[in-house]
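hiii so my PI (J.) wants the whole complex modelled not just the main chain, which honestly fair. so below is everything: four entries, each one labled with what it is. i double checked the lines twice but i was tired so who knows lol
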Amino acid sequence: MQLNIKMIAEMAGVSVSTVSKIMNNYSDVSEKTKQRVLEIIEQTGYLPSNSAKTLATKKSSLIGVIFAGELNVDFTHPFFVEVLNSFKKQMGVLGYDLIFFSNEKFISGGDYFSRCLHFHVDGCVIISGQKMENAIQELDMSSIPCIGVDLELKGKKSGYVMSDNFKISSKVVEHFYLLGYRELGFIGSTADSNISNKREEGYIKAIEGFGMTVNEKWFVHGDDFFEPSGYAAMKQLLQAGNLPKAIFAASDLLALGAIRALKEHGLRIPEDVAIIGCDDIEACKYTSPKLTTIRQNKERLGVLAAHMLFDLINNQSEGGSFVVEPALVVRESCGSQNR
Amino acid sequence: MQLNIKMIAEMAGVSVSTVSKIMNNYSDVSEKTKQRVLEIIEQTGYLPSNSAKTLATKKSSLIGVIFAGELNVDFTHPFFVEVLNSFKKQMGVLGYDLIFFSNEKFISGGDYFSRCLHFHVDGCVIISGQKMENAIQELDMSSIPCIGVDLELKGKKSGYVMSDNFKISSKVVEHFYLLGYRELGFIGSTADSNISNKREEGYIKAIEGFGMTVNEKWFVHGDDFFEPSGYAAMKQLLQAGNLPKAIFAASDLLALGAIRALKEHGLRIPEDVAIIGCDDIEACKYTSPKLTTIRQNKERLGVLAAHMLFDLINNQSEGGSFVVEPALVVRESCGSQNR
DNA sequence: AGCATTATCGAAACCGATTTCGATTTTTCA
DNA sequence: TGAAAAATCGAAATCGGTTTCGATAATGCT
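here's the output for the full assembly
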């Protein structure tokens, strides 16, 4: 038999309600009995059942984590997983644990809202670089607090965090420009990816802003943000002939895929083609050439997401968004080798 | 007000118990009423409250995930996260969701057993390459089904999966040997790491098995399995002078760190020093030189862990262990460049 | 038809907590 | 000292399910 509140009450010679009050910091219990009960709790190592508590209070201290979209986003995604890691830590100090919904469990694959109710999550975080789906929209519009990571949630109890994608692109273009590059290409994810689209838009705007011309032949797209997509996209560019001098890839993995294709063709980076990636994942440091990229502050994204969600849960916020500053990280793939 | 079983019962004109029976495949309910109720459930999208169900049955359909140990194992660990990803998928098709315990939430930091009871998890998976701690031991010895990943759990309701670490080492040594290397070094993690120790032991045995001599000067250790540790360990070797001709690193990241140090010293890989890593993480393909390594079948480790745990939960297994075969992946860091 | 089975259903106890509200005890203060 | 106020505590309802067991209805059989 599991240790429960009733047993604690009996051991302490008080009622169940008194024990409960002590555990929830009610004021109408004397210091003396409080100490006595606390001691027993300490000795026995009693922890209240989360299900019983959740049933009674409708609060579970659980945050749902949803990997949304069809872009293969899961634990193996090096960018999101770092944001998630930071988010988890921060949520932990705020007193919450994380629950991951299996997409496989429900054939419907999508009714996130029901599942949130099912587990009585206090809030949830939705991770996705994709355009809005219906199932997410339903959640967004519900009364369950939600935070999107790279996903623009607009509901009353929603918010989101993302990097300033326009600034990401303009930093890239500026760097290219200052190094003398004028023929700029782009490798993005699918048109389904909101983030990729934003970066592309910003890229085009920035190119025009610097008085250069955009050549659409040099804009290609993969199926997601992963390496093989970058490889395939670059292949496409190579087959068409007439390469740009510099390429901005919407993720580091896309950039690495592009580099692999380039190398296979006997091309040198950055001498023949300069490459800038995006995200600044760990692997950037180990590749050859080391990848020049735009760093997204993943730790900060995670921390902000956690705090926003916490405030939303506690009605101390009306939602909204946080946009974090990106930073250029100069390494070796773009002609200007620092240190 | 939340949609609950009572409301469904009223809508269908049956009792609460009947609805419950239908949802749990009891046989004592007629096909006719079953269909009627099912239809209402379908229409309303009713999902039973997990907390209520858990409270009543003591089964939560939740699997606890524990990152144990002090070796900085979390979502950013490229090997474990892939195992976890596969585990999560498989657990999903078996009908379970995952809950991640925050280490930050409880200052005690360790009472995993209580937390498992607190959430009524049906089982848990413990991820760690470290020696056994007390808090884990308690869980291991409890009646909660547990699976260790790279952690040898011995309890009656426990099991574990890991790669055949001796074979990993012997494959490395064999490869070195056949390529003519005779002066072999090793970079491991701390002495706290059971896995690292196993690989080291196996390495030594294999070296002796091939009639070579082991030189302890060439055996160094970092603080964990990450890149900076490999860098630091290699620095140590470099300062001592008199390098081995080939080095086996107990993880790919350690290998990459070592390579970075080597490059800084103007040494070439594999011409001056050959390196073999371990795990076969994604990054191996993007580095320069591409890393020759021993592949651990992460997907299979995850699937096996899931099935073992499922069997343990359903009393269809007495525990035990699964050891999966490693495979040599020849790339560029060890003198024999395939394709 | 009449009785024994079997099929179908519901009442009620229970799981382990929270919370309201009333009862009792203690304290305060004139 | 005695009445009013405040402090302390517990009984019981509640949350949303599951499960046992008895009641009733339907069916089988001679």
